[in-house]
Specification:
171 residues; alpha+beta; two-stranded antiparallel sheet
């Protein structure tokens, strides 16, 4: 009996070690964009459920006074901030609403933020929304965690390049 139990225990341990099981949140997820909250937060249908998704590695202006301050501290005027917010949101809606996207998690980041939003890269076509928003000057690089997200080095460098060249809406 001890031999049988020992063999079963070994088989169980070995099968767990060689399992190809990957947590669901690590696998890319397909979704369809239902609505745009702002430039970095979207409502996306994933597996028949509506999810609030926050794009990783960037920060899009918020129009609340306390959150607007982070952009005002960068030397962006309130008038320009409001104009870029509206213009960027319209462009994001035109690009994403009703479009199929791939949501990619980052093993260095949490599954969800303090507001319950999924934290994901939002890939569309051959690129991602984070890069597009940075290139257009609608967003800034942002990652409050350490170590940074997997794509953060790329985003930080792109943000610095766009801002230094004073390209895009905000800069």
């Amino acid at each position: 009996m001890k031999v049988v139990v020992s063999i079963l225990a070994i088989v169980f341990v070995l099968s767990a070690c060689t399992s190809s099981h990957v947590p669901a949140h690590v696998l890319p997820e397909k979704g369809n964009v239902i609505d745009i909250i702002d430039g970095d937060t979207y409502i996306i249908a994933v597996d028949g459920e509506k999810e609030r998704v926050r794009a990783l590695g960037i920060d899009y202006p918020d129009m609340t006074k306390e959150k607007m301050q982070t952009f005002l501290d960068l030397g962006v005027s309130k008038k320009k901030l409001e104009m870029c917010y509206e213009q960027g949101k319209k462009e994001v809606e035109a690009l994403l609403k009703g479009v199929n996207v791939t949501l990619v998690s980052d093993k260095r980041e949490q599954e969800r933020d303090e507001y319950g939003r999924l934290l994901r890269y939002v890939d569309v076509g051959k690129g991602d929304m984070e890069t597009w928003l940075l290139e257009k000057g609608y967003a800034r690089f942002y990652d409050p965690t350490s170590p940074w997200c997997e794509r953060c080095k790329k985003y930080k460098e792109l943000y610095a390049k766009i801002r230094e060249a004073k390209k895009g809406c905000l800069w």
